[in-house]
Amino acid sequence: MAFAPGHNDFFARRCVWVNGPVIVGAGPSGLAVAACLKEQGVPFVILERADCIASLWQRRTYNRLKLHLPKQFCQLPKLPFPEDFPEYPCKKQFIDYLESYAQHFEINPQFNECVQSAKYDETCGLWRVKTCSTKGTVARGAGSEVEYICRWLVVATGENAECMVPDIEGLNEFGGKMLHACDYKSGEGFKGKRVLVVGCGNSGMEVSLDLCNHNAFPSMVVRRSVHVLPREIFGKSTFETAVFLMKLLPLWLVDKLLLILAWLVLGNTERYGLKRPSTGPMQQKNTEGKTPVLDIGALEKIKSGAIKVVPGIKRFSHDRVELVDGENLYVDSVILATGYRSNVPSWLQESDFFTKNGFPKQPFPNGWKGKAGVYAVGFTRRGLSGASVDAMRIANDIGQVWKEETKPTKRFTACHRRCISQF
Predict the structure, then answer these.
(1) What pLDDT digit, counting tens, does each position of 12-46 carry?
(2) pLDDT score of 2 more than 70
(3) CB-neighbour burial class of residue 417 (10 A; exposed 0-12, middle 13-18, buried 19+)
(4) Quick one: pLDDT at residue 141?
(5) 343-355: per-residue pLDDT in tens?
(6) CA separation for the pair 412, 399 (Å, rounded)
(7) What gap in Å lies between CA 249 and CA 252, rounded to an integer?
(8) pLDDT at residue 308 above 90?
(9) Distance between CA 209 and CA 203 in Å, rounded?
(10) Are 28 and 89 in contact (CB under 8 A)?
(11) pLDDT, tens digit (0-9, with 9 covering 90-100), for 102-154
(12) 8 vs 186: which has the higher pLDDT
């Protein structure tokens, strides 16, 4: 077996040949790809840095969370939600669904495997995925390294791998309790407290609502314009209505109809400090990936004054925050509902397929496949339905090659298969 000079470290760590793709990430996107590959008869390995599947849902979401869209738009390929689940499953129900999904397809990720780097080796035409164990075992101590060698790499770490903390003057000087929304579970511990919620997306709105329901006094920072739509319009899912209309009408007309319907149901949101963008909600979703807020009760709290809407932050100090309009708020706690980002640039050594922000350069529906056997799933900005579409495409693409090369009458003549079979 011959390797080019500079590959001496290949033998310095434990190497594992994967007779199929390596999937990085065991969230819904990774599970969807794995299930589709199972259907194709293609073996694979899933690497997951946490100790469970769907760690974002299990460890970094608040208790009151429910799916914002009807369940038929959130189910993964090959296995629908149970019929007795409500239209908008809660957090526990969705986690139970994912657990049963993994069990049904016999998906067993390699947990506590944090990918340090993934690089395509042009010399042998293979991907080299280096991991570090995040938990000690009898066979392996914490920090031990493994290198997985594979022909295909599926990036399934998604859009929300790492929380984003804004760079605001004096943020580190604040003396009260501060946490990101990923660490917020319930408003139970904030009773009677003055809480500043930074961010007005779906998370910011729901956290503010949850705080109100636990008798806290939230103020919500709204720096930019935002689309607020009712979750349902006249008993029908707003998203489902939009999907139906987009099959019949141009996007601009769908947006105009949605805004008219939203005004009929919610009234003029700009009166309460929630100015709408000039771009329509569905167009903004398609072009910027920014999801409109689907209101489940926060707007009524804003109208009543229970949730105070405030403008952007100028600076923090020990016990208060100065807003851009000069007002000073004295707050006990701060919750940063400032979103998440992709972590792909920190470990994937590849520049043609992904941008510096960790998203495929090609927009949906063309961002699922790159060169040299690299794929992406869960980066469509179209939620679980977009991830499911890409998962099926990826599995079909790999499956076609796999079936052709593993025909009983076909001899394995590829150089990389001959050389790697020694391991």
Answers:
(1) 468 999 999 999 999 999 999 999 999 999 999 99
(2) no
(3) middle
(4) 55
(5) 999 999 987 899 9
(6) 16
(7) 8
(8) yes
(9) 10
(10) no
(11) 999 999 999 999 999 999 999 999 999 999 998 754 445 566 899 999 999 99
(12) 186
Give every CB contact of residue 44 below 8 A, 6+ residues apart in sequence: 18, 20, 21, 22, 23, 33, 34, 37, 154
Query: Is 371 a residue whose pLDDT tops 50?
Result: yes
Rounded Cα distance between 347 and 359, Å, is 13
How, if at all, do strands 22-24 and 45-47 pair? parallel
Give the single-character DSSP code of 10: G
Q: Which of 137, 196, 243 is nearest to 337 (CA)?
A: 196
Preceding amide of 365 cis, omega within 30: yes
On the CB side of 266, how many CA atoms lie within 13 Å of its CA?
32
* Strand ordering across the sheet containing 320-323: 313-316, 320-323, 328-330
How far is residue 338 from each of residues 21, 182, 183, measured CA to CA in Å? Answer: 34, 10, 12
| DSSP secondary structure letter of residue 197 | E
Q: What DSSP line would sit under 286-308, residue for residue?
A: HHH-PPPEEESSHHHHHHHTSSE
pTM exceeds 0.85: yes
Q: Which residue has the higher pLDDT, 419 or 49?
A: 49
- The dihedrals phi and psi of 219, each to the nearest 5 degrees, come to -120, 135
Give dist(CA 201, CA 176) in Å, integer.
23
202 three-state secondary structure? helix
pLDDT for 136? 58
